[in-house]
Amino acid sequence: MRKFLVLTPAVLLTCAVSLLPTPSFAQQEVISARLAAVSLAPHAIAAASPSLPTAPAAEPALSGESSAHIGVGVKVGTLGAGGEVAVRVLRSANVRFGFSGLSFGYNFSHDGINYGAKLRMEGAQATFDYFLFHGFRISPGALLYNGTKITGTVSVPAGSTFTLNNVTYASSAATPVTGSVGVTFRKAAPVLLFGLGNLVPRGRRHWSISSDFGVAFSGSPSAALNLAGLVCAPPNTPGPPPCEDVASNATVQADVKAEQSKLNSHLSFFKIYPVLSIGFGYSF
Fold it and tell me: What CATH number does the domain located at 70-283 have?
């Protein structure tokens, strides 16, 4: 009885399964196709969906640094008018070379002597420009050549009086006093300049304006005074006015040398020569 109760449910389940309809071969193919479609659906969806546009690669940021390394310009100042070239050697420094020249004449009279002077300014300089902040720089360097000089003529009208070393003389009516004067400077000198502006701008600009101010330690200039002709005793001198050759009279020559020394003393101010200039340039 106990075995019957155990085996009966198993027999009934087997009979029920056997009574179910078996799917045909065509139905099995349809089921397999549907399963394959379901398994491929994610790939088909991914392939059918439009691809999103990729973001373009970020371009490198444009730098504010200039690619210019050479600048050329023109300038005018107390050393004359000329040009200059600057070469960029460091991020904050240039090496600069310049040349200048200018001449003009002027006439004046002093102590009864007429001077016809001509000033010639010329020179070449080199500086190391180091930029501290906002275009302000310090520029030590040198005057490689200083051709600045003064040349001129000296004359005293016939019969008129003039003074040498506080001594009064008269110029001969027959052979009036003439002569020459010259002032020369040291050929080379150290320079210390300060300035604004950069001949080789570090930004995107190419045009520039710059200025210099400072001094050249040129030493005291040297003056030379030479006279020729006949000098006479001044008017109202008792007796006939004696006239003597300037070159052969020791007293007159001593007075000429004393006048030359006074002139050198007045020029000693220029042993520290002021340097001022302004210029315009273009870099590339």
Answer: 2.40.160.170
